Amino acid sequence: MKNTALFYMNYTAPYPGNFLASMMMLVKSLQAKNIKSHFIFPVSAQNCSWVPELTGAGITVSFIPEGSKEKFRFFREVFRDKSILFLHLHFTDSMAERLLIKLAMLLCRNRRPIVVHYHNHYSYHANALKRAVKKASMHGDYLLGCSAGVAESLKNENLSNDIAFIENAIAFERLDSSRNGYGQRNFLQFGFDYERKGVDISLEAFKLLREKYDDLTLSISLSSNRKYVEDKITEKLGEIPAFIKLLPPTENIAAYYDEAAAFLSPSREEGFCYSAVEAAYCKCPVIASDISGQNGINVRGIIWCKSESPSDLADKIDGFLRLTEEEKSGLGSRLKEAALKHYDLSRWVTQIIAYYEERKLLN
């Protein structure tokens, strides 16, 4: 009897975050249909504090070793299990891994549908041969984007696959917000990926802003890559100046939003910006780059800036600072209302289950 949903997730963050909260709710919905879940993570996640919570919820958890031979042996063992309904991939678009998975399925005579969940825009090889091989490795897979912009990037490649999107949602119960006013002079940004998140753009913007406001600070939350980000800031500014604060990762992310005048997301690439919606829920104003995957967020009140433009980001921050306390408070209230209306997690789970059912993946 096929009754196991298999998920392979390249997720190693030190905290469970919104992603695993989403997956846990999906697991409960599958359990209601008598479907078990098996989660696979990289071996580097083995000691993460959130693993016991998953196993305690009745989820089978495995860790894939490093190395191609080791991965292939691992997948062969996994696909000996004839109860698997489908494989759903998150945060991995490795051509090599996909070929290993399909070979293991073939040798185990257990070919199962594969759903590849894209959390960022589709990237392709400039080399024509590698590009063709990658497309071939994707043959027959279901491709699911986390936003309309991500799905569009897949369709633009003229792929013959079934392509759809289900917009991400937020586990609002994680966010215990207690904002007290809008007098803060500190701005928040996430920066584990220095280039993609546009940390350098914020640094340039703050150099301009501090000529006018010498009390402004920029807090950069880092879930990983701290040494790399420190080196890049030092390379750009000669040091890590006092107005920049590097924050450790935290599961109590609402506290960071509450302490910020506004949240900044001058990213160069976003599949779907979880943090912008989280900030909105916490009534924290959002200033974000007008890019695909981010500008599709259905939250009225986000302040948009031009991509790759430190001067425009500085102008938008300056304009925000000139708002009255009442105007900022009204903006925050509208943001939370919109976030709640469009991004409740139960909507995402319902749509994911419907997606599986429409493609007969639960049979």
Describe it for me?
The protein has 363 residues and is α/β, with parallel strands linked by helices. 40% of the residues lie in helices and 17% in strands. The strands form two sheets. The chain has a seven-stranded parallel β-sheet, sandwiched between helices. The longest helix is centred in the last third of the chain and has 18 residues. The relative contact order is 0.12.
Keywords:
363 residues; 40% helix; seven-stranded parallel beta sheet; alpha/beta; single chain; globular; six-stranded parallel beta sheet; 13 strands
List the helices and strands and how they pair.
Layout: E1 4-9, H1 17-31, E2 36-42, H2 51-56, E3 60-64, H3 68-78, E4 84-90, H4 95-107, E5 114-118, H5 128-137, E6 142-145, H6 148-155, E7 162-165, E8 186-190, H7 199-209, E9 217-221, H8 226-237, E10 244-247, H9 253-258, E11 262-265, H10 274-281, E12 286-289, E13 303-305, H11 310-321, H12 325-342, H13 345-358
Parallel strand pairs: 1-2, 1-4, 2-3, 4-5, 5-6, 6-7, 8-9, 8-11, 9-10, 11-12, 12-13
Helix pairs in contact: 1-13, 3-4, 7-11, 10-12
Note the beta-strand portion. 15-25%
Which quaternary structure do these chains form? single chain
N-to-C order of helices and strands: EHEHEHEHEHEHEEHEHEHEHEEHHH
Q: List low-confidence stretches.
A: none
Report the principal-axis shape. globular
Counting DSSP E segments of at least 2 residues, the number of strands comes to 13
